[in-house]
Design goal:
Elements lengths: L1 H17 L4 E9 L10 E5 L6 E4 L5 E7 L7 E5 L6 E4 L5 E7 L7
Parallel strand pairs: 1-7
Antiparallel strand pairs: 1-4, 2-3, 2-5, 5-6
Length: about 110
């Protein structure tokens, strides 16, 4: 019985500790230089020590990425699509962002 109580207490501590993690996310629209939404852009949310959250934009260019327990002071989000320059943004400590991103075309060589 004492062993069961110890395991039960450990489970409660785990639930309480993980319940404090911050939900950090970014949502918005990826657009091309003319303002048209970009389908198929890769949006990647990263936070040190965590696996990235990656999404592809649908035809309306929308995205929603993030994770529970990310550090908003160190989290970054990047936007990529073939034929366009990669854009990367820091979250600057904000746990929730709404942003529209315009990907500039790659320079001709």
């Amino acid at each position: 019985m004492a062993r069961l109580l110890r395991w039960g207490s450990a489970a409660i501590v785990f639930v309480v500790a993980t319940g404090c993690d911050e939900d950090v996310f970014v949502k918005g629209i990826v657009r091309g230089p003319t303002g048209t939404p970009l389908e198929g852009a890769t949006v990647t949310f990263t936070s040190p020590g965590r696996p990235p959250d990656t999404a592809k934009t649908p035809s309306d260019g929308s995205f929603n990425v993030g994770m529970i327990g990310a550090d908003p002071a160190k989290a970054r989000v990047s936007f990529e699509k073939e034929g366009f320059q990669k854009v990367e943004r820091a979250l600057e400590g904000q746990p929730q962002w709404a942003m529209d991103i315009t990907l500039p075309p790659k320079a001709a060589h």
